[in-house]
Design brief:
By secondary structure, the protein is of the alpha/beta class. It has 16 helices and nine strands. The structure holds coproporphyrinogen I (1CP).
Length: 353
């Protein structure tokens, strides 16, 4: 099926577009009253595992906010669950693995999931979303990066100090590398299956990349991302990599195999672009909390982001991290409208006859 709007695909490949495309990390979620209405009736994992419900909330931000892509409603933690770990969602506290990995015998219990069986609900949600969107916008598949997934598997949940996973990589690096290898191959199969099911591009979320020293980031995170990207079976579906908090290593990142690098708001796009050259597209990077301000302020800040990238193609507008649950959706609507209109001057206009 031909896409009516393929701006994001083109931007990932740094091909000419009339304007800058925009989508928002965590756009399918709690800030939308329409999401909360469905979520009130079903728990989070049930929603992930019911293709009809997942497709419905995936499409909500396309209809309500007007974004240029739909990201499939799921979670990065479904991979460790499919590898055999028990995932529970505690209302209020978030997702928790009840038996985090502590030893080699815990690693030995993990399985190699078959995405077409163990993660069939994701593939079904992608296929159904594609059918319902009927080519309106591309569908983004996603997974967590191996390092970020390892942190959850070892910590059991989000953490402030990451002491357990740090203890593992410094105390037993061999075991850490063996787990990372297993996560990497499971994730490559998973993302390949998402593309096979119809995802037009995929994003790899490395939310906890920034808690490592530059050297450890290369050894425990970047190396596996490179391996992962090299092993995704794809034709020309782009890959976006989001290494949150990594403000060094721009030269290495541009060689990691991703078509686009997503950056957080602590970086200036102008400098990122200078360092990346023409090798990759750049996604980002409005501070998510700017959306708490009033629309004129939001627009000024959005304009600064576009000016910092400057003229030319290869920019995908996004926030520097996920949208927060207490943002007013009207503010996001204003942002999307503004970027769609005012980004035209940063692109070469087609000449009329
Ligand atoms: O209560 C609810 O309704 C559940 C809240 C929620 C939602 C809406 C969770 C639990 N996950 C999601 C969906 C989700 N998660 C998407 C959907 C698509 C989208 O609109 O973007 C995506 C891409 C994710 C990815 C994800 N899950 C990440 C990486 C991105 C990021 O924001 O850094 C991470 C770290 C998670 C783990 C997770 N899942 C949910 C929560 C509350 C958390 C964070 C846990 C923690 O670290 O404490």
């Amino acid at each position: 099926m031909k896409l009516q709007n393929d701006l994001i695909i083109k931007a990932c490949k740094r091909l000419p577009t009339d304007r800058t495309p925009i989508w928002i990390m965590r756009q399918a979620g709690r800030y939308l009253p329409e999401y909360r209405a469905i979520r009130k009736k079903h728990d989070f994992l049930t929603m992930c595992k019911s293709p009809e419900l997942a497709a419905e909330v995936t499409i909500q931000p396309v209809d309500i906010i007007g974004v240029d892509a739909a990201i499939i409603f799921s979670d990065i933690l479904v991979i460790p669950e499919a590898m055999g770990m028990n995932l529970e969602i505690n209302e209020g506290r978030g997702p928790v693995f009840t038996s985090p990995i502590k030893s080699r015998s815990d690693l030995n219990k993990l399985t190699d999931p078959d995405p077409s069986k163990d993660l069939k609900f994701v593939m079904d949600a992608i296929a159904l979303t594609k059918k319902e969107l009927n080519g309106r916008v591309p569908v983004i598949g996603f997974a967590g990066a191996p390092w970020t997934i390892l942190t959850y598997m070892v910590e059991g949940q989000g953490s402030k100090s990451f002491s357990k996973v740090k203890k593992l990589i410094y105390g037993n690096p061999k075991l850490a590398h063996n787990i990372l290898d297993k996560i990497t191959s499971a994730t490559a199969a998973y993302l390949s299956a998402q593309i096979e099911a119809g995802a037009n591009l995929v994003q790899i979320f490395d939310t906890w990349a920034g808690i490592l020293s530059p050297r450890d980031y290369q050894v425990f995170a970047l190396r596996y991302v490179e391996q992962l990207i090299a092993n995704i079976k794809r034709k020309d579906e782009p890959v976006i990599y989001f290494p949150k908090g990594v403000h060094y290593l721009m030269h290495e990142l541009k060689e990691c195999g991703a078509d686009a690098i997503s950056v957080d708001w602590t970086l200036e796009l102008e400098k990122v672009r200078r360092k990346m050259g023409d090798k990759v597209a750049i996604q980002g990077n409005l501070d998510p909390t700017v959306l708490y301000a009033d629309p004129p302020f939001i627009k000024r800040e959005a304009r600064k982001v576009m000016e910092s990238f400057g003229k030319g193609d290869g920019h995908i507008f996004n926030l520097g991290h996920g949208i927060l649950p207490d943002i007013n959706p009207e503010n996001l609507k204003e942002l999307v409208k503004y970027v769609k209109e005012s980004s035209k001057k940063f692109h070469k206009q087609k000449m009329g006859h």
